Amino acid sequence: MSDVAAHRQTDEDRDVEPGTLLVAAPGLLDPNFRRTVVYVIEHRDEGTLGVVLNRPSDVAVREVLPAWAPHTTRPKAVFVGGPVDAKTALCLAAFRPGHDPAGVGGVVAVRGPVALVDLDSDPDRLAPRVRGLRVFAGYAGWNSGQLAGEIGRGDWILVPALPDDVLSVGSADLWGHVLRRQGMPLALLSTFPADVAAN
What we know:
This protein is an alpha+beta fold and about 200 residues long.
């Protein structure tokens, strides 16, 4: 890769940081990411890691992590976090006001009140401090420069996340909701039909 290409890719993803949402552009037709909203957990020179927020599965949390099930936000399903390593479980929590995740064992602060939870920790100890939890199977990952290339191609729209995004109800249209709250012109994209042929 030339220095010019490397510089361009760095510019493309300079606004990506933990707590950023990657909203799939209407033209992104990859079935793994079509109409998804990805919450970025980590973004470094080596690559980017996040989870898809709006893909609930048919698997109940109680079937795979029974100790965590009572504390998860409805729907109490495992969400499909992405196509990478589907046997890996990740958990995001939104902490209550007055509780700083940076000072709590068993979690890694991501941004603001949102933290990545160690599922080997004690759920009963953590539960009183959080407003909700969401469990994900798998994750979305990009190697160094890969996400920048996709952003440059127009596959992703970068917007700031709200803490409640990680606890969104699975049946809700999070994709459309996130776009609408951006105001014009991005709000117009929320009206893009899921199936253009049916329009």
